[in-house]
Amino acid sequence: MIKRLYLPGFLFFMVLIIGLYSVFFYAPVERVQGVVQKIFYIHVPSAWVSYLAFFIVFIASIIFLIGSSPQWDTIAYCSAEVGVIFTTMVLITGPFWGKPIWGTWWSWDPRLTTTLILWLIYLTYLTLRAYGGPGSSRYAAVLGVVGFLDVPLVHVSVKWWRSLHPTPVVINPQGPQLERSMFITLIIMLIAFTILYLLILSIRVAISRLEGEINELKTVSE
Amino acid sequence: MKRIYAIVRKDLIIELRSKEIISTTLLFSLLVLVIFNFTFEPGSQASRELAPGILWVAFSFAGILGLNRSFIYEKDQECLQGILLTPVDRGSLYLGKFFGNIIFLGIVELITLPLFALLFNMEIINVLPSLLLIIFLGTVGFSSVGTLFSAISINTRAREVMLPILLFPISVPVILSSVKATGAILRGSDLSDISSWLKLLAGYDVIFSVLSYLVFEYVIEE
After folding, report:
1. How far, in Å, CA of A97 to CA of B138, rounded?
2. Considering only residues 4 to 63 of chain A, which have any Cβ-Cβ distance to chain B shorter than 8 Å?
3. So what's the pLDDT on residue A176?
4. Which of A123, A136, A146 should one mutate to test binding to chain B, selecting the residue with the greatest count of B CBs within 10 A?
């Protein structure tokens, strides 16, 4: 099992090296924000991976609900775990970037707020799995579907909420016009993080499969 | 249709005899109003600004209590098994419970509203139709997912605690839009000024009623 991951692991390592090289030596230091802006290359890929992970939860949950094959349930569970970790990374790197630039650790900007709610929804998902008792995989799958469809509505509502009370901090909603080298660096890091996600997900799925086997053996030996 | 009515009627008869859900949640929502009132000077500007938020805190907390009861009855006496043995399909069971919850919550809200106006010194008679529309849309949205999650939470080990954890993150759009729309109406805005909030509420109601109806069969165990 682990041997099969050698190649993708090596691939991730190579892309990460190239990505980190680009972050520090290829992409220029941002004129206004300075070196702090480098967090961007971790922050945005983490956000991308969390959305990807929760999308996988959504798809796997639907497939599980229709066909009730435990394999998709495991994928949904593991993907949710990975997604929560990456969302946590977004929420940690965000304030580190925000403090020097906006002058505040936290702002109730629509994207921040949506990410926070997203994080809460999937923490709930993990809580439900942990304390759900028997049948919790079906409940979690239902939450995986409902929660994902809720995200666009959450985003719209917090966007309107903020637009009624504009925040004092200056946030450019269009985002900065990225320079070419910065854009390429971002793409490399996005690829690296996506491979990382797939890697962690497959390791996690393999582990939970082993867990299942061990539990089966335990019941047999008893 | 007849089956849905049978479920609603059954719940109403139980409630008319015991009056448990309505009396306890009503008392609770009044307590919320009174206790939050202590946090600021009576009649101050702050109390008027925060009033819509407090009203919806009262409604949603009371709603959680009411929604929790909705399936606990069925679970405690194994009544759910009985219902599942009757020719009522899962979808009708969901709709029956959903409508019942709207009725219970609606009654509590209709009694709370004048007391809220009294305690917070609000003029609501002129804007009553708009307010009732917002409360109706908000209650439908809150109960739609709430009924689904209520059926999930009674089967988990954490039981009562599970419902608020599940429901609050998902119902952020409902609570946010209801609070904003109520606030605008109480400050004297027209319905047309809050049409975007109303559309969001209505959209949420439709999406999550249909979605909950569709996935409900997966959360009720054989």
Report:
1. 37
2. none
3. 53
4. A146
